Amino acid sequence: MNDLYEGHRPLVAILRGVKPEEILDIGSALIEAGFGIIEVPLNSPDPLQSISKLVGELGDKAIIGAGTVLSVDQVDAVCDAGGRLIVSPNMNPDVIHQTVSRKGLSFPGVFSPTEAFAAIDAGCHALKFFPASLHGPDGVKAIKAVLPPRMHVLAVGGVTVPTIGEWLSAGTNGFGIGSNVYKVGWDSEKVGSEARAFVAAFDAAAQ
Questions:
Q1: Active-site residue 39, yes or no?
Q2: What's the CA gap between 169 and 35, in Å, rounded?
Q3: 39, 53, 144, 194: which one is catalytic?
Q4: Is 194 an active-site residue?
Q5: How far apart are CA 76 and CA 53, in angstroms?
Q6: What is the pLDDT of residue 207?
Q7: Domains in the chain: ranges and CATH
Q8: Which of the residues 53, 128, 144, 194 is marked catalytic?
């Protein structure tokens, strides 16, 4: 595995809507299934509490952080809660700079080559192509062809178990998986089952 992911698969579980009282069961199920990167979007209920609980109990087993991070103040709040991963739906240089200054991992959302290169210039660690479904594998492949080879690209939005191999063949390095691995109301057993399917598909396609 690439050092960027600290030995984990480049699969980010996006737990939009997760509650603090269920976060440890859901997080444990994901880790047991083979996910090692967990994102709690900041528009979830009490997200900083969920992040803090995850870090306290599972921080030695996974990279934990937040999504939908839109401001410098939010970067600080996540880092103060122990989170290390900062994911955004947009490309904000100030958010990237602050993430880097706090020694976090910056995965900003981009859609065009212009945004991608601006994010790279700002110091991001990887690019989140969002919504990837609008580009499709061929679109991401075309943009990735002009990016620095070292820059990792994660597809977020529209990636499914049957299509994960197609995305990898197009040069996508990793994935953010949201509603296909967690929906509000799913219990840890359901989450674990869906997560195992993604892990198996990724491992088979990545060989």
A1: yes
A2: 21
A3: 39
A4: no
A5: 17
A6: 82
A7: 3-206 (3.20.20.70)
A8: 128
